[in-house]
Amino acid sequence: MMGRENMKKKILVCAFIVICFSIVAYGTLAYFTYEDTATNVITMGNIKIELHELTVTDEGTVHVRSDDEMCVVPGLEVSRTIQVKNVGSNDAWIRIEVQKVIELAKGVEENADVSLIELDINTEFWTLNDGYFYYNEKLEPSQTTRPLFTTIKFSESMSDIYQESTAIVTVYVQATQTANNGNTVFEATGWPAKTK
User: Which residue in 10, 66, 125, 163 is a FRET match for 136, CA 20 to 30 A apart?
Assistant: First the structure.
């Protein structure tokens, strides 16, 4: 009789445990929440990430500001390394959205072709799917991803309409837990909404 009652309690507890999760770029903490008629609080680890943006100079490798603008020069290649570090306590799936913009000089009425900004994407460790670059492996605490890219290059075929224009490459990073969340990054759920 007692064994049957304990079994019912175990089934009831399992039925009530629901974990909802979402994380936004640049290491916002993940919130594990529960809501139902019973009052239960579940405390778990967190998902937290940092975006590392580096450039190689004559003095060595240095961090750069993420809002740096680049002057467009045909054939110019700029050192820019994008990596993500897991600074939380749980394994995480990682994805990155890259947005490229070229602001033409004042008075130029043409449409800018952002494909003229070339990134040397690391396709061995990152896979493009639905507008995001997904890191193919789970990222354990304290680990850093392989770079998404290490250089930004402006095509040599740029015409005169790009004179005095400015290029902006924006990187948005997102993470979600790996625990009970798919066997691969492509099966994972709980990602934030797509950036506008």
Answer: 66
Residue percentage of the chain with pLDDT more than 90: 29
C-alpha distances out from residue 34 to 16, 61, 83, 95, 179, Å: 8, 44, 33, 26, 16
pLDDT tens-digit map of 124-171? 999 999 999 999 999 999 999 999 999 889 899 988 898 888 888 888
Q: Tell which residue, 31, 47, 145, has the closest CA to residue 96.
A: 145
Single pTM value for the model: 0.72
> Under a CB-based contact definition with an 8 Å cutoff, are residues 64 and 78 in contact?
no
- Which of 45, 41, 48, 42 is closest to 26 using CA atoms? 48
Rounded-to-integer distance, Cα 7 and Cα 9, Å = 5
Q: Which two tokens stand for residue 113?
A: 């072709």
Q: What's the sign of the alpha-carbon dihedral 118, 124, 130, 134?
A: negative
* Residue 74 in tokens: 């045909």
